[in-house]
# Entry
Amino acid sequence: MGKQRVLSGIQSSGKLTLGNYIGAMKNYVALQHEHDCFYMIADLHAITVPQEPAALREQSESVAALFVAAGLDPTQAAIFLQSHVSAHAELSWLMTTMTYMGELERMTQFKDKSEGKEAVGAGLFLYPSLMAADILLYNANLVPVGDDQKQHLELTRDLAGRFNYRYGETLVVPEPFIPKVGARIMSLDDASKKMSKSNPNVGSFISLLDSPDEIRKKISRAKTDLGREIVFDVPNKPEISNLMTIYAQCSGQTLEQVQAAYEGQGYGAFKKDLAEVVVQALEPLQQKYADVRSSGEIHQILRDGAERASAVAETTLNSVKEAMGFVAKSR
Ligand code: AQP
# Structure
């Protein structure tokens, strides 16, 4: 694979979880040295559900610091806040006008997040058009995401193709880059739902910043299946299969190795070891996070990242506007 343009992002809608890390951030780090990478803190996406201003500010800085703590090198990858690059909001509108209501109505994330709510903001409905704009602005070839974002990415591909068909070849049609193992880490209290940072039950997710004791407590309370064997069998043992995936991803072992190591042992021993594996995997990240936060370096990193991102984004936005027939500003 030659050098590719990579774009991805994470909403600053809460504390990042092990799901965000395994499904997306690990690949961000893996791709940064080989490719031209842009990673954004998606604060405009975060406000598709209500956010307290002080909390949003803190969460956005926290996600940025976690990017660095997880191993992203700001001299390689551009790390930036979505709201610092105004082209995102502008292209989002242009993409919205090209998106069909029926396409948005089919989105499972919208159905899940709006279910049972009396008032649902239009932003939540339009979220996929903004996501398409995010990706298309950077002419990204590759988009590292977890499995839950596949449907949104498919819409992005359709919108790029539709735009090029109507207005001439302008936008790059991106490909998803999804991990083979860990593409969907499930909730600790219900393996039929994905682990989510905005789940009101904090016991359902492991935050990257949870203390060792919180991690031990959450894992000891995690739901298990009937029986006692440690076998990877998603249809029949969804809860234990999810815990085995977390074990494998945090220890660097394969699922087969994990299964073989726990043959003949029960859930209790496995969960105890799993907690220690997670605590150890997160310890260096948490240490680095504390250093990054206390140094204050994140502000400069975000300034530099926004500058690099804006240069690319503005160029694409201008090409799009020109192709669509907007009158260019006279100099
Ligand atoms: N449980 C998960 N397993 C694997 N990957 C996951 N991702 C999210 N949850 C899991 C991946 O993390 C990236 C960033 O996601 P996001 O924050 O932009 O939106 P999300 O997918 O809606 O994540 P959350 O944690 O569930 O956020 P909230 O609760 O705010 O909606 C994406 O690449 C996603 O695939």
